[in-house]
Amino acid sequence: MLTVGVDLAAEAARTAVAWLDWQAGRARLDRVVVRADDDLVVEAVLGAGKAGLDCPLGWPDRFVDFVSAHRAGHVRVPEGLAGRVWRRDLALRVTDQVVHEQTGLTPLSVSADRIGHATMRCAGLLAELARRGRTVDRRGGGAVVEVYPAACLKRWELPYWGYKRAADLAALGRLVDRLLEAAPWLDLGGYEQVCRASDDATDAVVCALAARAAALGLVTVPTADQAGAAGTEGWIALPTTPLDRLVTAG
Fold it and tell me: Which domain of life is it from (predicted)?
């Protein structure tokens, strides 16, 4: 089985793609590309059994409704609530709030942070995948699943912060060391140094690991009450098992 991880940014300059080949209790990193453009991302997803994207797959439903109401001049502010309270559902999707409840981490707001630029790019990529015949289910049931590397690393008891600064390659190196210790079955091959030099590349590898978890059904899924919002807003699939299950399950 081949899984792909995409650390998606607004532009190719900070986008990385990783390909993991899973065979007989082993996973080998076949390829990593940094500065990945749209064509490469689409082709990678098309060739994968499952792809994990580190990017929101949609905007909060209430934010979309709010913008539509504002355009029409019909915004109504809830009475008796502080501004930050009623704006929370505009800034955070259902899945973002679930991730915070389960991990203590809060994903960047797609409606109130610069990550919205990456989501605009992502929307175009999802449309192209659908045009080319791949099932796109923002709940994670199709070709792609939304993943969150920091939350994955935290659940796997690995370093999950402090490594995404260009000036601190030592922290990135420690993360790679810990990952290889926790997953001795993971072979980074000739791309280990790329991962040690680029946090984008390392995040892409984590996304590919999370895609494997999703393909095996070892991730969180929306409840019946959450499924409607997840279908439009996107759903972050959190691993529900240790790393070793990725090679022993299935």
Answer: Bacteria
